[in-house]
Structures are given as structure tokens and as C-alpha cells.
Amino acid sequence: MIGKFTAYFITSSNAILTDAAESIVNVLASAFAFYSIYLSARPKDLNHPYGHGKVEFFSMFVEGILILLAGILIILKSIYNLFYPQTISSLFDGSIIIASTGVVNFLLGSYLIYQSKKLHSLTLFADGKHLQTDAYSSGGLVLGLLLMHFTKIAYLDSLLSILLGLYIIFHGYKLVRKSVGGLMDESDFSQVKDIVYILDKHRRDAWIDIHNLRTQRYGNEFHIDCHVTLPYYFDLNQVHDEISKIDSLINEQGILRTEFFIHADPCLPQCCHYCRMKNCDVRSEEKQMDIGWTMENVTKNQKHFGE
Fold first, then answer.
1. What Å distances lie between residue 100 and 13, 22, 305, CA to CA?
2. Distances in Å between the alpha carbon of 229 and those of 62, 137, 193, 303?
3. I need a labelling partner for 256 at 20 to 30 A (CA). Which of 30, 75, 123, 164 fits?
4. CATH 3.40.190.10 holds for 189-298
5. pLDDT band at 48, cuts 50/70/90?
6. Which of 80, 78, 71, 79 is nearest to 166 (CA)?
């Protein structure tokens, strides 16, 4: 941020001021992200039985809003300077400074994204993406500054600043959209698809079907509740054993640490035509078909009778 403001005072370029203003957002957003990571890492307590991970979505929301505001202010100032241009100088020196800050931001952003995938942290991912976006905008800015340096066309400064502002607004919107989806418990379809695939691939005969599967994400933890149909003649110990196997399977094979809330359903005679249980003494009919588990049938609130 200091480097970019130094470049602005050297050049008086509105486009450089645009990039420097976004760095203020970087600093504020990173400070909030630092606190949210600390908070999300705290263990569950009486007031927060699901943990504190939701704060990561709020952190992403705040960062997105700050980016949107920065983009809007940048565009307004750029439009003003189209009509009231400033005298610009030392663009080549300013370009060197901006290029240096862009390299630093890109490397730091890439490292944060790498760590976010290892730690399953939405906050680190959002902050890393933000820094990478800043690096890309700095790269475009350097090209524009060099173009102005060699062509001496002054109004390119404001036009370039407006384009960077629009790019920043678009990136801010994406962060806000993702954070609101998380706060409203929007399903992460890619994660659900992976879980359904693991369950289907390692399916046991006693797991007649799984339905009404719903998910929530709290920071680096996934919460799933679903209904599992088991043979009605299983005693409580057998039911508990099968449910524990599902829990262990996902936590061994899956990516995120997952907490299950499973409701056990007894099978019905209508399940017999796709039930895989061998040597079952209470069948009403022989097994006639297999029903694979997919996103479509596992998320429905009904058994897979006629599929």
C-alpha cells in the first residue's frame, strides 16, 4: 500500500491512485480475516454448538463489500478526472513500483490459496483471490501506464482507471455472492457430489437407500443430515454399527471433516425389488434391479421405490 501511494505522489496518476485505494481495502480485509481465522479455530462451546466457522462467510462478505465500495469510488473519481484531468509525470518510475507490488501480491495470494486448500479455509481463499486480483489489475495498470508514457495520451489514465474499477466491482460481487450463499446454507454441490460418489462406491448391502441428504458448512467442517434405510429387523446395536460405518467411511475418504446426523428408517416391502441383502428371510419379492445413488435421488425426501 505504501509503495503504491508513493507511486501516486510521484506520478499524480489517477489509475495508480485506483490501485493504491484498493490496497487500503487489502489491509482492512486482511485484518478482519486475521481475526475471523482466530475465531473460527476456537472449539465448540455451549453458545456455538456447531463451532465458530460461519464467521468465515461473514469475513468474506465484509471483504466483498469493501471491494465493491472501492470499485465504485474509483469509477466516480475517474469520471471526474475525465473532465478535470491532472498533470501526470514520471510514469516509467511509477510503473516499476506498481510492477514490484504486483509481483509481491501475486506470490502472497498464491501462497494463501495453496494454504486455504490444505486447511479448507474460505477466509484464506478469499484473501488470496483478492490479492491475486490486485496483482492482475496491477499488471494491466503497468501496461496502461507504459502505453501512456510512450503515446502521451492523458485521458487514457482515467479510462484505464474506470476499467480497473469495473474489474474490481465484478470480483467484489463474486465474493459477496459466495458469502451470502454460505450464510444461507446454500449447498456446495461439488462437495455433495463427492460424498454421494464415495457412499455409492463403498455401499454395503445393509444400506438399502440414503435420502433427504442435506449439508451445512461451518468453516473447515461439513455437517450432513440424512435418512438411511436399513433392514427393519436389525436391533439397535446393528443399526448403530451401520451408521458408524457411514460416518467412518466419509471421514476417511472425504476431504473435509464431516459430522453426521443420521435418521435410521426401517425398510418396507416396496424396497425388496432393489434391496441387496442376501439370504433375507422376509423378502416380499426377489431383487430385480440396482438403483445407483446420485445427487438427484439422494437429496430427495423419499425412499427410492420406483426409480
1. 17, 16, 63
2. 42, 53, 20, 8
3. 30
4. no
5. confident
6. 71
